[in-house]
Write a structure and sequence with these properties.
Blueprint lengths: L1 H29 L4 E9 H7 L7 H9 L4 E4 L5 E6 L4 H8 L5 E11 L2 E9 L1
Parallel strand pairs: 3-5
Antiparallel strand pairs: 1-2, 1-4, 2-3, 4-5
Bound molecules: copper (II) ion.
């Protein structure tokens, strides 16, 4: 009887350990943590070709972005992240487009693919 209880207890312990491990690994894979970043909305065409940004470039940035130029976020540390639309939340990306040259706060999902670091935009403030 005692032996049986111990065996059951060990099995239960193992089952709980497996479940915990499974829960930890699956949550890490399926729900990436939202990232919050602050920075200037860049018109990537002018920034990549000639480094132009900031208040003096605001009007041009708005034109370029309205014309289809990709957007980036220039953080205070000088790092640039490509901003892309979350197809489930297109209004957030549209809101970023209206802030060319402005400082904004973006909440999104960080992604690193093929050397490009970017944020899938979920929310803009
Ligand atoms: Cu421009």
């Amino acid at each position: 009887m005692i032996h049986q209880t111990n065996g059951l207890g060990r099995m239960l312990g193992l089952a709980i350990a497996c479940l915990t491990l499974f829960t930890l690994s699956s949550s890490a894979q399926t729900t990436p943590k939202p990232t919050v970043m602050k920075g200037e909305v860049l018109d990537m065409a002018c920034y990549m070709s000639s480094g132009m940004h900031g208040v003096s470039h605001k009007e041009c940035a708005q034109k370029c972005i309205n014309g289809g130029s990709p957007m980036g976020l220039l953080t205070s540390s000088g790092k640039v992240y490509l901003l892309v639309e979350n197809h489930d939340k297109p209004s957030a990306y549209a809101s970023a487009k209206a802030h060319a040259g402005d400082q904004i706060q973006v909440t999104g999902t960080y992604a690193d693919k093929g050397g490009i670091q970017g944020l899938v935009v979920d929310d803009v403030k």
